[in-house]
Specification:
Length: 357
Amino acid sequence: MKTHHKPSGGRAPQGMRAFYLLWLGQFVSIFASRMTWFAITLWAWDLTGSATALVLVGVASFLPGAILSPFIGALVDRWNRKLVLALSDAASALGTFFLLLLFVFDQAQIWHLYAVGVFSGIFGAFQYPAYASVITTMVPKEQYARANSMRSVIQSASGIGAPLLAGAVLNLIELQGILLIDLGTFFFALGILAVLNIPQPERSAQRSKVSGIWQETVAGFRYIFARESLMAILLLFTVSNIASAFSYPMMDPMILAKTGDDAVILGSVRSISSAGFLAGGLLMTLWGGPKRRIHGVILSFILEGFLGAFVFGAGWSLSFWLAGAFFLSMFNPIINSCYIASCRPRSHRMCRAAFSE
């Protein structure tokens, strides 16, 4: 894929140096956002004591991405990637600022979280595809593997450290302090993004003839519908992700209810869950997965259910929750990697739409 570089006056960082800076900004911002949502989870539980309320917060954040996912890839391909990343960060910052004002003036209510979740979810749905596509235009081809590994580290490392740090400082700086930190990291990330030159891929002559996003999306669905095996696995992932959107938010109120609202235990379970995701990614990197990718998907789903969901749901002690959370996350990168590897180029965008990292 050819890319064209806008003039930068010789000052804008290029190549891996630019990617390192972008990665740093995204890592700091996502880490602080994870701290915010951990603290807000505790606040929402303390306010309502309702598992339903926490589930609705998770659904409000997930639903916009699920609805928009078939179109996001086509939109990101057409839009300026730097602008997409900037708007995504700016929207998240606006949502955080709105919550900060509500908490400062003691006006926050549970429905505000639903509204901010939907708003941030709409713009946040574009961030991951845009950030993933940036790698192919910013980074030399021989560095793709390293760049993708660093991108995965953002999710796993922030998931491990953010809940523990938020639980440790929450009593010292309160929720308003964590929101201020989160807001500051957004400006840090936007400042880094502003000085970077992110190349745009040139649209091929054939690509420019595509009549529109809707037609391109319909063509992708037709390709999948014509292949029963691909359609079956796409439905499997779609149903699995919808079920996760309802079940994963239930984990937090379950632990809080059984531990007397112990934030340290909840933070430990969340951290070990992210550690499992990191371990699964490292295992997949070293192993490479089975030759028959579908076997990796099916076996990982089975093991995730027995070692993860069953152990976590049936357990009444911290050791069971930690083990279950670890295996629930460990098999995710294996499933996703095998799934994406089995997708052919033409259906790749629809494959990406069916799973979340």
